[in-house]
Amino acid sequence: MDALKAVNVYVLEGDDGLTLIDGGWSIPIARELLDKCLRSIGSGFGDIRRFLVTHVHRDHYTLATVLGHEFGAEVALGIEERPALELLHRAADAELHQSPFLEVLRTAGAAEIAEVWAAGADDENLPTKVEWAFPDLWLEGDRSFEVGRRTIDAVHTPGHTPGHYVYADQAEGVLFAGDHVLPTITPSIGFTVPATEQPLGEFMSSLARVRQLPDLRLLPAHGPVAPSTHERVDELLAHHETRLEQSLDSVRSRGTVTALVVARDLGWTRHERAFTELDPFSQGMAAMETKAHLDLLVARGLLAAESHDEGVVYRVV
Known about the structure:
The protein is α/β, with parallel strands linked by helices. The protein has helices at residues 28-40, 58-71, 82-92, 101-107, 111-119, 199-212, 229-254, 259-265, 280-299, and strands spanning 10-14, 17-21, 48-52, 74-78, 137-139, 143-147, 150-156, 165-169, 174-178, 217-220, 257-258, 303-308, 311-316. Strand 9, helix 6 and strand 10 form a beta-alpha-beta unit. Helix 5 packs across helix 9 (280-299). The radius of gyration is 20 Å and the shape is globular.
């Protein structure tokens, strides 16, 4: 279901052991590869003292919590991720009868896609409370960590998720950026529960925060290292301004529409694929991301929105 094939985990050596930026996904192949890589530098899982997790998504958080539970390593996570973890705990207890993402899809006008997602749900793979355990340390606001001779600045960057953090080592000139700044793709926006009011607005504001830091080497959670955070932040901000213009043009041409209708007018991925070429999971992601763009246009006073049976509908003011 996931188009991405790998997640980058960064290892920092300190006087008392290792600090890892993110942990990876708790699946056998990821655990085996992380074990192999740690052994290649003369270390093992027992040497990990802390995980600084960028955000709550499973490919970053779940292996950290599993290994933290087994080996006593501290896990740190942004406190704004707590509502998402509470939802996952309810799902683990079978208190949720359906995925909370289905309602988000319906508000985007994508009820048929929601039905496809619901039909593909696997009750045998419900979340476990070990994988989605609450962290040992909740991060609130910005703060710093001492890792050996390094000072790591934890900077709150909501948008991709509400509790996303990046970690800057300004002395070494590097930014561990998680999914906030990716070198070749744009992180998903709006794919989070509980839904937030302005995920794209928060994301763009967080990009501006990173732009105010010194220009650092970009160490992303997916993709290759890149030389300049400033250059990539500028590209991402320009991309989303273009998408906002395209979304507004779609509403102007069509009248009163849902996010799904607008998403069908847009190109997707770096290859500008048509919406109909996407698989159902990616179509749902596209509808939710388009809704985030339309909601920001509402906040800017360019569109109006109303809730209807078919979802939230938008029109030009």
